Amino acid sequence: MGKRRAGRELLRSLSKKQKKHLREFGEEHPFYDKLLLLLLLHSYFPFQSEDSDKSSAESDSETEVEQVSGYHKLLVTLKTSPESESEEEEDESESEEAEESEAEMDSEGSQDTGEAEGGEGDKNDVPEEEEGTTDTAEQMLSQEQADGTDTSCDPRHGVIEEFTDVKHESEFSLETNFMEEESGDCNADKRDGNPFKQHMDKELDDREMEKMSTLPKTSSQSQWPRLGQLIFSSTLEKHKTFKADKEVDVKQLHLHKPLESTWPKVNKPFLSSVDKPRDSSFTLLQRELFCIMNSYRDLFYPERNALTNGEEIRHAYCLHALNHVLKANAQVLSNNAKRRDRKPGSDTDDYRDQGLTRPKVLMIVPFRECALRIVHIFISLLEVNDKKKIDVSNKKRFKGEFGSDPEEKPPNLKRPEDYEAVFAGNIDDHFRIGVAILQKSMRLYAPFYSSDIIIASPLGIRTVIGAEGEKKRDFDFLSSIEILIIDQADIYLMQNWEHVLHLMKHINLLPLDSHGVDFSRVRMLNLNNWSKYYRQTLLFSALQDPQINSVFNKHCFNYGGQVAIRNVPLTGSISHVVVQLPHVFRRLEAESVTSVIDARFQFFIDKVLPEYRDAIMSHTLIYVPSYFDYVRLRNYFKKEDLNFTHICEYTKKAAVCRARRFFLKGEKQFLLFTERFHFYKRYTIKGIRNLIFYELPTYSHFYSEICNMLKATDSGVDATWTCTVLYSKYDAQKLAAVVGIDRTAQMLQSKKNVHLFVTGEN
């Protein structure tokens, strides 16, 4: 009973938002992954005793070890060996932990105040496995249902039945509504050169389809004033110069009627005095990006920055998405009126204006705060003036669930500006919401099959799609997506990139059910299963990464072609290192991309680690971007009985405090440190004298951040500082982001191990 009460106390300590996430079993951040495993064990064995629960967990681990997949083997290691030491340490008294945390904070000074006692660490703690977890979750569920919210879920299948608005179904139905004659929106969309109609009405023949599926793409380059170097690739279109519009007149963009008047007002905060003389509605970046978007070509822009241009880009793609939806719906409503007034026996093929399902735009964003900002932009673009407010259903509920509580943010936290920009507001990453737009009204929480736009996180959409073999799974609503927007793709590398790949495999497939569609209104491109060739994909990221490039190159089939921005960094992030530090870049050889993982591990244990085994090389931090590499190194260090400690995204707060203290005082010679932990926490690790980058960081600015941590220890021994970086020829993009393109070319041309000494002094 003591453990049951302790479990309830742990759940009571969580905020209302965290309790909801706990009930929905979602992986808010990597710190919740272990809690998910514990809850799943309770769901399968709810009535067993404490001893039997322990034995069941052990038997589950043994079963998973027997599986062939290395991925599952590492997950088993996560549940057993990685935290075995920290779980034993958790048996210490709470007062002793508090004293250790307080002592650490005193030793580290004011910069890290609140890091171990509060802040993000509090949000991302993983509670102990307790019997009371299931009971408390059931109480929460009944309370939510009493409040009128349908929140039942099946944790074994990952299908969540959240609130959906069924009350306004008839008001937002495309089948039963007609275009208002006085609006004139449909006539405006019939103007010559309308990009929407040109793209969607083009009929591809079998010969063109065969070309797209068999022939390679041809590419050409061009230089634009703001975007820089563009790579235009296509199978159907021949080489031609794709130029940016020097000036943009809103009336020439073929925007839907209300957007022509609202866009200049909504975008005004981003306009500077430099932009205003030439163009009163777009910044230079927006002008060039929208030129590509409005041509319905695929776009990959890898220079999104949350601090500088993030909101500019968000406004631009929101304008494009809303413009597309309004035009598509206006066409349907106009044809509804024509069908109503048509003479009997007339041809019905003239009214093919829909897909197999209604959703047209899918927007993938990392956090609820992003969805909140997108909806606010939509509302602002639809409101012509202050007197004509649009009707938004369920707006209060939306603000409550997607907004943030200012009181939840702990005080005295000092983090870099880019961290504050990325993690602003509600950072829950398990959500999805349907949005329906009809003329002058907006419906939030619309059922997916009644939505025009779906805004979701990768995890939120993954739990709906499900996995093969699950009974409750659905992806038919993705069959007719015409615009796919993936914003902040780099963050998904820190969450779970598999969710993005899973989505790309299930988009634009033929639906398994008709869902009440009128096939006489369905476009032939959808009936022919050619939807993916008409889908426009807009991909925004803060960096270029092989995994992101792979999605753009292998999962985007737009017949209009693809445009990728490919600017090379002239100076790398090493120029931002403020400490005088010798940087040694050591090249390892690998025959292929698949073999580089094993080659790097072997190179490290044979060539690098022996140089640091001596006690004189203490205070060595090993930065590991991949969690699976981290597990491999940790197991090897344990096997070799090395004096080390480790911190990863799954490590509990108390264990993190102890690891940092041991490393600072020199009680542990090595510290294994994962990139995802640094991404979510950005703690300053003190006591570093020797740095080893097991692999180049995903984010180039992490390199300078980690190097600059050496100045946090005022010991006067900077002459003994070292920094070693492992790289291969397959790390060209990451290497260029760190040292610059010129040095990268020199380093890659040499086939031998290169020792390059660089002083990163400004």
Structure overview:
The protein has 762 residues and is an alpha/beta fold. Among the domains are: 212-340 and 352-408 and 415-565, P-loop containing nucleotide triphosphate hydrolases (Rossmann fold); 570-759, Rossmann fold. It is globular, with a radius of gyration of 28 Å.
Topology, pairings included?
Blueprint: H1 2-12, H2 16-23, H3 33-44, H4 50-65, H5 70-79, H6 84-89, H7 94-108, H8 120-123, H9 132-146, E1 153-154, E2 159-160, H10 185-188, H11 195-201, H12 206-214, E3 218-224, E4 228-234, H13 257-266, H14 284-293, E5 298-301, H15 310-341, E6 361-364, H16 368-382, E7 391-393, H17 395-402, H18 417-422, E8 432-438, E9 441-444, E10 453-456, H19 458-465, E11 483-486, H20 489-494, H21 497-506, H22 524-527, H23 531-534, E12 536-540, H24 546-554, E13 562-565, E14 582-587, H25 596-608, E15 620-624, H26 627-639, E16 644-647, H27 653-665, E17 670-674, H28 675-681, E18 690-693, H29 700-708, E19 722-727, H30 732-739, H31 741-749, E20 756-759
Helix pairs in contact: 1-9, 2-9, 4-5, 7-27, 13-16, 14-15, 15-16, 16-17, 19-21, 30-31
